[in-house]
Amino acid sequence: MAKLTSEREIPCPCCGAVLTIDLNLGRVVSHEAPPNPDRPELDNAQNILAEQAARRDALFEQSFQNEKNKGDALSKRFEEALREAKKEPVSKPLRGFDLD
Fold this sequence. Notes:
Number of helices: 1
Order of helices and strands: EEEH
Largest sheet: 3 strands, antiparallel
Helix content: 40-55%
Distance between the termini: 100 Å
Strand order of the largest sheet: 1-2-3
Shape: elongated
Structural class: alpha+beta
Number of domains: 2
């Protein structure tokens, strides 16, 4: 696109994008995105998707194992509390008017 005399290219101080502004219109007529080094290449898209799928599967498997073992842990805690309760002597609870 041919650059007019009324157009100015101004770099954005925040993101580094280049804005082309038409002074007669007082508007931005084009925008050029800044280079982004974190943007993944499309050549590696299959590898990236495979890595993310493997990560999701690993997290799911870990969550599944945690839920599977959760019942065992709760039953062990319950059995331990039950044994402790059986060791304690059964006594009548004290109430305020029993102290009189």
